[in-house]
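Aim 2, interim progress. The first record below pairs a target sequence with its structure tokens.
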Amino acid sequence: MDKQGKEHRDRLVALTFVSVLLVLIYGPGAPWFVAADRLLYDRLASHVANEPLENALIVSISDRKLAPNEILDQYGKLIQIFKNQSVKRIILADPPEMEASADLPGWAATLSSGVPVYVPNEHRLAQLATKSGFLDITPDSDGIFRESGLWRFGAGLMSPSLPLAVALDNPDAGTGTDPRFSGADDVIYLSNYQPIARLTAKEVLKQGLAAGEYAGATVFIDAAPPIVAAAAKLPSGQFVTHSEITAALLANVEMSRAVIEPSWVRALEWLAPALLAIIAVLFLPGRMRRDIVMLSAISIVGLVLIEALLLAIWRIRLDLGRPIFVFLGVAILSWWLAGAVKKAAVDAYKRGVDFLAAGRLEPAFAEFRRCKADDALATLMYKLSLAFEQQAKPERAEAVLNWMKRTQGTMGSKKLSMRGNNGAPQRLGRYVIERKIGRGAMGAVYLAKDPRINRQVALKVIPIEKEFEDEELEEARLRFFREAESAGRLTHPNIITVFDAGEDKHLAYIAMEYMPGAALTKFTDPKKLLAPSKALELCARTADALDYAHNQGVIHRDIKPANLLYNLRDDSLKISDFGVARLTDNNRTKTGIILGTPMYMSPEQLNAEDLTGHSDLFSLGVTLYELLTGEVPFTATNIAVLMTKITTDDPAPVSNRRPGIPPSVDSVLAKALAKRPHDRFVDGAAMAIALRNCADYAAT
């Protein structure tokens, strides 16, 4: 299944999942999903900035030892005291029950004259009070009191709530013209309660009040001590009495700080889960896990911020808990699907590599088509197309190239330049040369393009006919292609991939993966040395790659800084020139001088003995020594003296030559530079472990 097919499948799975979720949200599961809205609202409402009712206090009568008639008597006395104080208004949010035989005419004079008194309209005193209104404290199913109605329709009349009736009777509040409170279905929402002053009835009745002490105040009188006689629990978690609830609602109405839910918000709340579901299904499936997490986090934080800002600034409640729940559900599903796809792609990648190495090209093509298109896959597909060509199957090679173009997008249409540069050939085989990018012991390296897929390659060019005599030329040619074929089997993240090898215009060439960056030779300058821990880590990567190559039966023979390419931007390292060193190693000039770089060679390589992977580990030890100190461990004025030093002398410890290098590095180098191969590390993996241990110690 290609990338487009995976995205289509993931999106279909996500659509099915979210459809079931929406059916539950809008259908039988709606009450359960409302809990998501409530949870988010409660968290935000707890932090809404409210202000207490101005110049207000609550006077509570302790009813623990008082009979009902005594409580009523204290109500009457307190009302009269505060009327004498010229308070602004008196509110009885929860007056005590009165028997049918109670003397209402006795209360008429107390309530009807002077300072206005407000009571709930269900109480018997409502017909005597200045104004009345309903006070309906009905919590939600979870026991939290979140909303209170402003109007109620009954008996053909619209009646206001008690807080609204008080506010409408206040000529200074101006709430009567506020359009937010003009509808029969208007509801305001509670958030948190800002406490107002409290007195006990005993303090007022026994100690008395100074004249005019509470003039212009709003006074609540009840028989409900705080918390103990709480009537409801707010979203903030506070337990409040009837008077405290009325005070909070009245403050919100009179100060125009009530939290409301306009009709357009209700419509948006109904549509939001479906809208967020569509967005999630369109944008999340088919993405990488990191992108899914990032997009989900940004979206969810954005939705929470929108709800918080509407609540804090405009006092509008917009419930986004359910939309967030839907979006999070699709995100989790997409994240899981991305992981499943990634595992399947990794398995397919491994199987494809094995099939390609075994020469089973059709199964390899089938497995690679199941992988995510990236540079690593493009490299393998390029090798696969060349393998099809070598098997005389040009139509299958073309199919591979067409698949690459389709999955990687349309290649640039810029026409390749056909001009030569600095004497370089314009074309070798099917490769168009652009410019020279380096030079080795036996030839140059050019940046070229394969016009079949417009892909950049590094082309190593060797004038093979100039370097070998006629009687040696055929053997060198066979050895060249045999070594290039061996190198072409190597597939490792730290080894330059060999795509192709050929001969044209009396020049042998190897087409390799092009890697931007520079050789580690740049960092052998004593003024530009890498940090010890970085040098050790890069050599550890090299040792891992050599271990892989040695297990494949391939020996490099020319490990040195110039053949280790490092891209500082993405911290990638690759070994180059596999397939070339063997040709160099077996060739001597007419004067008998060894081509290449003998200061990096192992004793057995200088003595022309049969080589094993231990020779590469010796050369890697020399490379590490130079990266740490800026000098190779063995130097001489001529080849004979150099060979003697390499085969007999021990180099000076690097810990004595540069601060910050732990003594353990000396031990690793001593083992890597041992004169006899079997005294060195058993393999590259063992050397890599030792180098990383040293790197960890050097970094601390």
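The second target in this work package is listed in the same format:
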Amino acid sequence: MNLLLGIDLGSTSIKAILYDLDGNPVARASRPMQRFHPNPDHPEWTVWEPQVLWADTSAACRETLSQIADVSDVKGIAVTGMGMDGLPMSENGEPLYPLISWHDPRTQPQFDWWIKTITADKTYSISGNPVWAINSALRMLWIKENEPAVFKNTDKWLLIEDYINHCLTGTFATDYSMASCTMLFDQRTQSWSDTMCELAGLPKSILPDVFASTTSIGEITNAAAKQTGLRAGTPVFLGGHDHLCSSLPVGAFRPGVVMSVTGTWETVCLVSDTPPLDLPLGRSGITTQSYLFPKQYMIWGGNPSGEMIEWYRREIAAPLVKSENPAPLDWQVIVEQAVKAKPGCGGVLFLPHLDGAQCPQADPRSRGVFAGMSSRTTHAEMIRSVLEGLGYQIMDVIETMEQGTRTHGGEVIVVGGAIRNKFWMQNKADMLGRVVRVPEVEEATVLGAAILAGLGAGLYRDMETAFERVARESTVYQPDENLTKQYAAVFPIYRELYTAIAPINHALFDLFAVS
């Protein structure tokens, strides 16, 4: 039996899932992703401890493999996960510092310097990255400036997936999609940029070799075999950034297909054969990232999404809705409340910028707003307005992306945790005026990594062949034309809301030093 192992390093959990070649999960296990706050003088500093990360990944692998009869059935392994978090490694392969998490705000001074000195436009024109405080290059600069002895002894900087690959094989390597997260990768040449490294004052020598996803990077070492339960000599192949991997089992690897990855954030993705590096696109917060395969690119824009609803559930809905259950208020209760409100929410609009604006307005000083409320506004209208505000935000992202790439997609493929919310999926279709297709694929990200391992091992002839084998039926949501017209009439008003309220939000942000 031929099996493929996908490993996913997520912000909340580490998953190890074995699949057969038809994409059926055969065995699985997970461990919580553990955050640490090691500095009492800076309790906001947040890190992933490398030894804990490797131990938890190994434990998830061991549990998964304990569920099958013969570990030699595993023919390939690939790792996926989050993008920017990384760490310095010594020449003999030892971690020199914890991985600074994307939750950690310490790189704000480096961000400010980068914007002033290198500029966002220069950065985007080469790397395709908007400048965010979580970008990898800013973590490298923080280490260089604050831990000079660590930086001096750094032989290679590895991103989080690269670190686990190193633990598995002893190899220093990364793939195009992960390298794209650093601000140091040239999208046109798909290689490390001399210009960006020189401007940043970072030696190119600390960056690992870059290859396409599916490239073989080595085999499971004897030491890794003892810790993971894998057979020594099992081949390991490069995976890729998580949302790119999730595009594979749902057919969104084809240029022009729009995919929405839902979860804590909602990320809208579009594959292209050329890297659109136009500055207006970059200024809107859109990222151009090398895709999993050579000479292809993924254009994407994301914003917090599920996090907005979680805030409403925790802070507003739970105290208002009576429930005999002492547990946190169930999501179904939230949905039942939203259904009670009519589309348009009686004129209430929600600007979902509780954590700033990422795309298509790149503005960390923006904040959330309920507008159009009156004494007749109901709780049901407020929660529905949150869902509709997220819908308007995605409409804005898709329109910006398609204008910037001179394409117009058709249906939208949705994957991720929110797909279980049928009301929300139907509302997406109504607002977008497009068919929303939800493939019945569990854990698309991990399956995508397993597919890359299968391609690398030669178990699939090509990506189309792989997709034909793993493809599943979809739930299809057809838009209501009348509701689409109603939402289209409100959409221009929603777009004006940010511009109108921005000066007030900025003044409040500056006055109260909101973070």
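The chain is about 40% helix and 20% strand. This observation will shape the mutagenesis plan for the next reporting period.
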